[in-house]
Amino acid sequence: TRPLLEIRNLDVDYGLGGDAVHAVRDVNLTIHRGEVVGLAGESGSGKSTLAYGITRLLPPPGVVANGSVTYHPPTGDPFDVLSLSPNELRAFRWAETSIVFQGAMNSLNPVHKVSTQLMDVIKAHDPGMSKAGRLARAKELLKLVGIAEDRLESYPHQLSGGMRQRVMIGMALALEPQLVIMDEPTTALDVVMQRQILGQLVELRERLGFSVLFITHDLSLLVEFSDRIAIMYGGRIVEEAPSADIYREPKHPYSEGLLRSFPALRGARRELSGIPGSPPDLRNMPTGCSFHPRCPKAFEPCDKKLPILGKPDDHVGPHRSVACWLHPVTAG
Ligand code: ATP
Ligand code: SF4
Ligand code: MG
């Protein structure tokens, strides 16, 4: 399949100089057309920072310190998102890539009806469309996400959390973007609701053909719904593989721990063991592999040399890559 978004050597810092927090380090990730990619990792591992970095929504003092983000539009030449002008960026957001933020269900404007908010998004990008046209489109979007059209006249507080979340997804789909990024859209919702909403998004993806980057702590959700999973630790992607492979045979000891931290999807529930220890201090990273102080399998080179994430297929098997001295890169 063709690539849609190629992230290369991306570094993101908060602040400058010696005090900078290195929140994202040397991230390489490709999202293909129509693909659902999951991004997992503990709190503070840099997931949101990566999402904001690639969409140019980093709050200050966040800066992309290095790298490129190449977007391949359906027609025309690829371009680097990081060098778009403010005007080009406005056109790019919503229409090519849209993002549903962490805690999005609380980001609807409480004083406006659902209809107004949906129609405003449509209007901003298609000022020529008639009001009737916008209303029809707003109805269509609600239907798409499984909400009755009479809810158009509701205010956000009249909707359940799950419905508000779905309205946000409808809004994200309003301009038929090629990529929808969802940043932990479901933390505040219960597990059943999380599964429903993610399931629905994946079903829409099948019908409409967009790609999804889905960010969560909950690896079991990703195993169920995504095609491929990237796992972050201390700002770096430490493993990337097809979901089934991660589930069956995680190669990075951190992936293994993360997988064990969530209950099994089917069959007997496993013990929730978690990963002992705490995430690294991004201002003062451990030497070598940043996971070594917590790694049950750490050995000779681990505290001295940084393991590099090879290109997929370099070593550990088809379409997989892992940054760990247990699986050194042999090719390339
Ligand atoms: P969570 O699962 O809790 O959402 P995350 O993986 O999304 O975590 P980020 O929010 O990307 O993590 O944060 C990555 C690191 O960057 C954290 O150590 C965080 O403290 C730091 N960070 C985030 N925002 C800022 C900021 N505005 N200024 C300084 N540091 C920040
Ligand atoms: Fe553990 Fe070493 Fe692999 Fe890091 S490189 S995950 S410390 S075995
Ligand atoms: Mg986050």
Automatic annotation (TrEMBL):
Keywords: ATP-binding, Cell inner membrane, Cell membrane, Membrane, Nucleotide-binding, Translocase, Transport
Bilayer topology: Peripheral membrane protein
Matching InterPro entries: AAA+_ATPase, ABC_Ni/Peptide_Import, ABC_transporter-like_ATP-bd, ABC_transporter-like_CS, Oligopep_ABC_C, P-loop_NTPase
Pfam families documented for this protein: ABC_tran (PF00005), oligo_HPY (PF08352)
Cell compartments where the protein resides: Cell membrane
GO molecular function: ATP binding
Signal peptide range in chain numbering: none
Domain ABC transporter: 7-259
Keyword Nucleotide-binding: yes
Family: Belongs to the ABC transporter superfamily.
Xref: NCBIfam families: oligo_HPY (TIGR01727)
Name of this chain's protein: ABC transporter ATP-binding protein
Organism the protein comes from: Dactylosporangium fulvum
